[in-house]
Amino acid sequence: MKNNVNREIPDQLLKAQNDQGFQTTDFGQPTIQRVAPKVKAQTGPSKVVESIKQVVAATVRDGMTISFHHHFREGDFVFNMVMREVIDAGYQNLTLAPSSLTNVMNDIVVEAIQKGTVTNITSSGMRGSLGDAVSHGALKNPVIFRSHGNRARAIESGEIKIDVAFLGVPNADEMGNANGMNGDAAFGSLGYALMDAQYADKLVLITDSLMPYPNTPASIKQTQVDYVVKVDQVGNPDKIGSGATRFTKNPKELQIARMVNDVIVHSPYFKDGFSFQTGSGGAALAVTRFLRQAMIDNQIKASFALGGITKPTVDLLEEGLVNRVMDVQDFDKGAASSMKNSPAQQEIDASLYADPANKGAMVDKLDVAILSALEIDTKFNVNVMSGSDGVIRGAIGGHQDAATAKLTIISAPLVRGRIATVVPDVTTVITPGDSIDVLVTEIGIAINPKRQDLIKTLSKVPGLPIYSIEELQQKAEKLVGRPKLLAFKDRVVALAEYRDGSLIDVIKEVED
User: Fold this and answer.
1) What integer pLDDT is reported at residue 283 of this predicted model?
2) How far is Cα 158 from Cα 385, in angstroms, rounded to an integer?
3) What is the DSSP letter of 2?
4) 289 partner at 20 to 30 Å CA-CA among 23, 251, 446, 484?
5) Cα-flanking dihedrals φ and ψ of residue 295, to 5°?
6) Which helix or strand (DSSP H or E) is residue 466 part of?
7) Is residue 244 over pLDDT 70?
8) Distance (Å, rounded) from C-alpha 134 to C-alpha 125?
């Protein structure tokens, strides 16, 4: 059947998932029964065990679901240490359920797939050699891609049942009290890992800094932890923020940022007490700097900034331009170090951040969200998952979640190299067009026709070029040609869910 973004979803998948396919961005008010972890009372004065090998032997069994977090990003050592022991021990048919998969994890996951250790994966994304392998049919069962909010929902409802969570932390005491703010490999907020800590049947903390008891503040508490393992190093702090944030001098990105700022400032949402979420790319960081000056010039302060936090955002907090920073993850050292010193920078878990099925997610209080795209089509559907060659090379992340803002802006160049960004149809629908209000490119903007109020308001802004999205697509096509039709096999290698758990698209195996 075709869902409401006109994507063909095989009936057998819908039946297997007990799913009607994506219908609407309006999630409504469902009643969700939350699950609880198994708890075994702790005896003894310490939970510290000698090695990862020992704790893997004590916790992992064939067929289990194991999880990790990705807050270390490209500086992560923990994932590979654990997976090496899991593979060498010969475990089979495991489900891998991390909050996301980064490049540093790719080779060992490919090995685990080849040896039958891992036969299922659910994650917010993947890229590099792993994305390429999965796109070419390496994994036995389809990957399930979920947004950060949807992952929280699925964990809370029991759709993802974590048997063992292996969480790297930069500090912990012998009973398992830990946080992400202190230590050589501090990364700030533990927002995604907090879901695993709360719901996993078994929780293993891996740290390189064993602190005196009691270790405070405790983001993860001893009541949740089963084992603590001390290792030499949990991560490379120099790579935790590498590639995530950068200040741009690119004229194209600066032009996009200026126009994004114009859209925000001239929208009805730019007023005292507004809220916002920005990304971590070059253009998004530039928007934060332009927005800072606009707030000063107009004597406007924001009530809160949300999501993945960067140093430019905490600078706004320190200047008094933002009242609160609600922090689910930190993209750089500046943001990570700020959290332990500022009570106004609040660590939040992924459920509070974006679970659509809880009693109030913070994304639903957003006025403005600035998001990126690999592709956007003439129906405003956005792809952040697969490349123009059909290979998996991205992540849903919080894209669908933040797109619930009153004003959702996609910032993207018209073309990247010789590849169009604005296309007739995206390769994979990740965020539906009904969520998107404005596309900003370096040559001008396109406003979703459903937002006639914005068309009327922004048409009055001097020097702001406005096109239909069809016109932008045609301009991109004139520059680089029409995207070629891709060849896919019939086999589905990945399922992309919307934030409510419904299937929004499938990714098929690419032809060699």
Assistant:
1) 75
2) 25
3) B
4) 446
5) -65, -40
6) strand 466-467
7) no
8) 12
* pLDDT tens-digit series, residues 425-453: 999 999 999 999 999 999 999 999 999 99
pLDDT computed for residue 19 by the predictor: 79
Q: Which residue has the tokens 């659509």?
A: 356
Alpha carbon 98 to chain centroid distance?
Answer: 11
- Give the confidence band of 243 by pLDDT, cuts at 50, 70, 90: very low
Structure tokens, 126: 């993947």
| Structural contact between residues 64 and 95, judged by C-beta atoms closer than 8 angstroms | yes
Q: Is the pLDDT of residue 33 over 80?
A: yes
486 or 209: which carries more pLDDT confidence? 209
How far apart are the two ends of the chain, measured CA to CA in Å?
27
The pTM assigned to this predicted structure is 0.96
The arithmetic mean of pLDDT across residues 33-62, rounded, is 92
For residue 235, with 0-12 CB atoms within 10 Å meaning exposed, 13-18 middle and 19 or more buried, which class applies?
A: buried
**What percent of the chain stands above pLDDT 90?**
84
Residue 491, exposed/middle/buried by CB under 10 A (0-12, 13-18, 19+)? exposed
Packing angle, helices 52-59 and 78-88, rounded to 10 = 60
Tokens 């080779």, residue?
107
Q: How many CB atoms lie within 10 A of CB 30?
A: 11
Q: Which residues of 261-293 are buried (b: 16+ CB within 10 A; e: fewer)?
A: bbbbbbbeebeeebbbbbbbbbbbbbbbebbbe
pLDDT of 241: 66
pLDDT tens digits for 122-135? 999 999 999 999 99
Q: Which residue has the tokens 């952040």?
A: 384
Provide the 3-class DSSP secondary structure of residue 373. coil
The C-alpha atoms of residue 228 and residue 65 are separated, in whole angstroms, by: 19
Residue 168 to residues 39, 106, 350, 430: CA-CA distances in angstroms? 21, 18, 17, 29
Partners of 206 in the β-ladder: 168, 229
216's CB contacts (< 8 A; 6+ apart) are 177
Q: How many residues does the chain have?
A: 512
* pLDDT for 237: 80
3-state secondary structure of 160: coil
Cβ atoms of 389 and 486 closer than 8 Å:
yes
**Beta carbons of 176 and 335 less than 8 angstroms apart:** no
